[in-house]
Amino acid sequence: MSEAASTRTPLGLLPSLAPSLRRWLPGQRWFAGKGCAVAGFSLVSATELLPLDGPGPGLLHLLVRVRQREAPSPSSGDCYQLLIGVRETLPPALAPALIGHLTEGPLAGRTVYEGTRDPRLATLLLERLRTPGSLGPLRFDRFDGAPAIPADLPARPLDAEQSNSSLVYGDAYILKLFRRIHPGPNPDLELPLALARAGCERVPVPVAWYGTATPEPFTLGVLQPFLPGSRDGWVLALEALADDRPFLGEARALGRVTAEVHTALADALPTVKLGGPHTERLAAAMVRRLEAATRAVPALVPYAPRLRASFDAVEALGARGRTWAAQRVHGDLHLGQILRGPEDAPWSVIDFEGEPARPLTERCRPQPAVRDVAGMLRSFDYAARTHRPWNAAWAERCREAYCDGYAEAGGDDPRSEPELLRAYETDKAVYEVVYEARHRPDWLPVPMAAIERFAALD
Ligand SMILES: Nc1ncnc2c1ncn2[C@@H]1O[C@H](COP(=O)(O)OP(=O)(O)O)[C@@H](O)[C@H]1O
Ligand SMILES: O=P(O)(O)O[C@H]1O[C@H](CO)[C@@H](O[C@H]2O[C@H](CO)[C@@H](O)[C@H](O)[C@H]2O)[C@H](O)[C@H]1O
């Protein structure tokens, strides 16, 4: 790959960009530090993918650390990936992508905008991914044996509610750009890669990816085959509910897919046995998350002691010598993470990043597989609660069918470990309360209803 003039690092550009970024960043869906003012930025790396002072649009790749005063601890000093387009003036079609204007230096007055919204700039990223190589700190890699990626596929941004940003190329590939990035291998590359190498067909193959080795090892983007015409389990479940249809065949199939992926992950990556002090740590982590959640969302306070009892029950089992197998898991499994292609095509599992708010080290640790099962069971409850009147029986039947499918396909029946399952469902509902309070306050009653129910159980 040619390094041309584009490896010049325009370090002086950040002060000129900072006032616009400070206004724009908090409004982005993927910005994790909402609610606390942005105090400043420091540059981790800057790479000109297209010259900024040329006649056409320029493209600047930035890794930027965001300082926030009074930031909640998980989001202080977070590092974000930004793709900044630079033009003299913005064509009307790109008006919604506006970030602002450069304020100083030789490019003062130029318009800066969200580069992923510009098909011309998005195409350039695919061009880089087609050929392995380096560009400044960025390193582009390809999956051995994957067919060549065609040139000139038209690009479009994916309009989905998501934690990152995705670009679709000619309905053939989808590139996910990670927004809040953490040093170390991203499980959304690591796990699909391990599964693809093991021949598991339940996951779209990561055909190419890019990241940095220095100043820190970051995974920045993963390209996978796009599954055209696919629909996710959430959409299918809502359709079934709207038509007053059961969802048993689908729930069972989802259980089977989950078990298949778990078996493949356990075969491909290290597993451990949890017991004794490990169980204590597992329960203690759930308690800590509950405590942090009650600080963030005071509505949880009255329920906390009863919720805690389910975590204590797991700890008590550990103390009595019970052990559990732990392995790498999906970490944020819900109905929106399983896609079905048209005409009964097989289901595929996506988005192995885990819960974006959890520390990466925690997400990459082996955990009981039932954690994913709990995530999916919570999702049936979510779907049922969007239905008026609330259709509890629908969720209950899905739950049984899903667990049946999971056990049929070789997974341990999740119902055989009721304490662990309940602890994970509670832990997930606590996570959801914080997630909804932060990102979608209108949805808060959904996990709060589950919290009430869990707290009322014996
Ligand atoms: N391989 C794929 N084929 C088709 N659509 C996909 C594919 N991967 C992801 N999507 C779509 O993109 C959306 C966002 O992807 P996801 O990996 O969940 O991103 P995020 O982690 O940012 O939430 C999904 O809900 C799905 O609609
Ligand atoms: O978008 P991500 O995959 O990163 O996951 C986050 O957002 C999800 C919502 O988009 C959130 O899922 C919650 O809402 C779903 C319905 O929209 C529901 O099916 C899930 O069961 C529920 O947890 C997920 O928790 C969050 O990490």
From TrEMBL:
Subunit structure: Monomer.
EC numbers on record: 2.7.1.175
Catalytic reaction equation(s): D-maltose + ATP = alpha-maltose 1-phosphate + ADP + H(+)
Residue ranges constituting the Maltokinase N-terminal cap domain according to the UniProt record: 24-118
Protein name: Maltokinase
Family, per entry: Belongs to the aminoglycoside phosphotransferase family.
Domain of life: Bacteria
Name of a matching Pfam family: Mak_N_cap
Gene3D superfamilies in the record: 3.90.1200.10
Pathway noted in the entry: Glycan biosynthesis; glycogen biosynthesis
The entry's keywords: ATP-binding, Carbohydrate metabolism, Glycogen biosynthesis, Glycogen metabolism, Kinase, Nucleotide-binding, Transferase
